[in-house]
Write a structure and sequence with these properties.
The chain is mainly beta. The protein contains three helices and 14 strands. The N and C termini lie close together (5 Å).
Length: 156
């Protein structure tokens, strides 16, 4: 069994995935994890784990660990329709990154000004067993978390 610590990609208030107002995430259709209501402003979103950037979109990225644990970070809800506005990538698809390395700069206020929810779901792709995700105390308490702090641990 592998144990993968997953760090918060942004500062903000840690929230349970079921509290994300989008059924794709709240019903764990893509996998289990947690979310962060991000700090307001222009913020850096970092890699939640070390590994290879398997997919990089302006508003989302997927990092695959050497143990084949894929962690998706989605910056805001319905942000795909922004055509990349409000986001600046600092890495390329296929790059190796370390946990805590800046991946995308995210203009939270710009996204909010367009009427979109800026929440940041962080999920282990295709994880069907909620028991394999051990949430941090910040998530269970709905407390503030800093970028780079443990958000949850994924056990496979």
């Amino acid at each position: 069994m592998s144990t993968t610590p997953v760090v918060a990609p942004v500062d903000g208030r840690a929230v349970s995935l079921q509290d994300v107002p989008d059924p794709v995430f709240s019903q764990a259709m893509v996998g289990h994890g947690a979310a962060i209501d991000p700090a307001r402003g222009v913020i850096d979103a970092v890699a939640p784990v070390s590994g290879k950037v398997l997919k990089l979109l302006p508003h989302a990225y997927l990092v695959m660990t050497p143990d084949n644990v894929g962690v998706l970070v989605h910056l805001g809800l319905d942000t795909v329709g922004l055509d990349g506005q409000g986001f600046i990538a600092h890495v390329s698809q296929g790059d190796d990154v370390t946990a805590g390395q800046v991946v995308i700069t995210y203009d939270v206020l710009w996204v909010e000004a367009r009427g979109l929810n800026p929440i940041v779901p962080v999920v282990v792709m295709d994880e069907r067993e909620p028991g394999n995700i051990v949430l941090s105390d910040a998530v269970t308490a709905g407390a503030n978390i800093v970028s780079g702090a443990r958000l949850f641990t994924a056990n496979k």
